[in-house]
Amino acid sequence: MNNSTIADHFALLSKLMDIHGENSFKTKTYSIAAFHIERLEEQLTDTDRNTYGSIKGLGASVAAKIIELIDTGKMKALDDLLADTPAGILEMLELKGVGPKKIHVIWKEMGIASVGELEYACIENRLTRYKGFGEKTQVKILESINFYNQNKGHFLYAQIHELFPSIQNYLEKIFGTDKVWNTGNYYRQLPTLHELEFIVAEKLEFIKQKFQTAYPPELLEETANSVLYKLNNGLRLRVYAILEGIPQFLFSTSSAPEFSKAFQQRFYDGNFESTTFSSESEIFEKANLPYIPACLRESVSIIDRAGQNDMPTLIQVSDIKGIVHNHSTWSDGLFTIEDMARALIDKKMEYLVISDHSRSAAYANGLTEERIIQQQQVIDELNKKLAPFRIYKSIECDILGDGSLDYSNEVLATFDLVIASVHSNLYMSETKAMERLMKAIENPYTTILGHLTGRLLLSRNGYPIDHKKIIEACVAHNVVIEINANPHRLDLDWSWIEYAMNKGALLSINPDAHTIEGFDDIRYGVIAAQKGGLTPSCNLSSFSLAAFEDFISKRKAAIISNT
Ligand SMILES: [Zn+2]
Ligand SMILES: [Zn+2]
């Protein structure tokens, strides 16, 4: 064992002690030891162990630990701490600019135990409530998390979406607009991605030459017809060099294998590769089918629907008429209700649903009953001032541990609509999660079920649930299922949308906006919903003001007759 390894053990021990909030004097002893061991000229294993205690920066307790480590390969104090530290906390040590003392606050005071949850807390503006975490620190932490994730090749759709135009432009500039096609999982509109894929109609050698710039990207992989580069921002860019059969290649790389196989068998019977197509759409024309966009090329059922000319009219951003589920300065949002309303009036939207957090969400400044009364007065005033634009009184009501909602029925009755969401005790068995959600769905005051599984893409799995049962219960109790458009959530997952629509469920693409810019997340909800085949008529936030008003008043009348 060399000095550098021994020093690493002490450095980690010191960091973990800080993370666990142990006595800082002891912690310092070990970081000082690490510092000095790293700089020793002679290897400790070649030094008389009786002299360890008198080496500069080391004392008796450090000396004992060095001997233990050399003899056993282990350091018990360190192993004990490692066993008591969640993997997500250890991962945080890899974030630049987030030291052990900060991690201590993040873990012990904020209750955050993974990089993904930390990322979400930054986005929701939750760090600034803690000492030592100003707005600047929050921005810096978010930057290092982005860097960390990207370096691992994990991207949300939204992150690639922002980078996409510049990369496409770059490729088109080099190779010509008629020689570049986007394909793969981005083209298929999948919510998380590892790489961005393009087809270029050139020879591989020629493509590689063009990437030999002054600062060439790292070449990660090369096959007979493709190269995979890692760009400076961490993005993996795959380029396929294809000269013939481009429409087929585009089709195959942008379809789920199950879909692609069934389609080729049914319509081309082994002649798919040998047929000449001038474009991707001609593949469908020659099969006498309407065009199936890449986002729907997932299951065999869509082929049947296309055959019956029953393709869904996919929802578009322009179909969204009102913005449901938003947080203002009354809880953890950054803008006043009036600012948010005016921004939507400028965007020609017809209504805004303000759903701040409920009282149990103390970390998010959830509303007490007195503050609800005050907020509703403010909304009444604004509605007079801003008519015909309409602001609806809502709440994002916590679903408590036992499935009940966070206020009495009298308080719940004051809202136009209630969005019920789980924000606490997220680690549940399926039985527990189902009990909790079912009770909330059965509550007559629940209008919308918010972010169904609590998942955070790339960082936290949702709690386990029986999707079919939940969807059926929502239909039976006339509860709308949210498609949370925050690119970290996209929850209900797209893969359940078709099932929900077939059962007669009403869904709602909601941005869960905490800022005015957050409204734009609607587009990511729409992109995910398109993948599930969502039509505007099955989406509550596509309702015109009149239809929305009608929906709300019928829903309220039903509560009165049910209670
Ligand atoms: Zn929420
Ligand atoms: Zn929310």
Task: Explain the overall architecture.
With 563 residues, the chain is of the alpha/beta class. The chain has 4 domains: 85 residues, DNA polymerase, domain 1 (Orthogonal Bundle); 58 residues, DNA polymerase, domain 1; 153 residues, 2-Layer Sandwich (Beta Polymerase, domain 2), CATH 3.30.460.10; 177 residues, Alpha-Beta Barrel (TIM Barrel), CATH 3.20.20.140. It has 23 helices and 14 strands. The chain has a 7-stranded parallel β-sheet. Strands 2-4-7-6-5 form a 5-stranded mixed β-sheet, sandwiched between helices. Strands 1-3 form a two-stranded antiparallel ribbon. Helix 16 links the parallel strand 8 and strand 9. Helix 1 packs antiparallel against helix 2. The radius of gyration is 28 Å and the shape is globular. The relative contact order is 0.07. The structure holds zinc ion (2 copies). One zinc ion binds next to loops.
Bound molecules: zinc ion
Q: Please give the largest β-sheet.
A: 7 strands, parallel
Annotated CATH homologous superfamily of the largest domain: Metal-dependent hydrolases
Number of helices: 23
Q: What is the class of the largest domain in the CATH system?
A: Alpha Beta
The overall average pLDDT, rounded, is 94
Question: In a few lines, what is going on in this structure?
Answer:
This protein has 563 residues and is α/β, with parallel strands linked by helices.
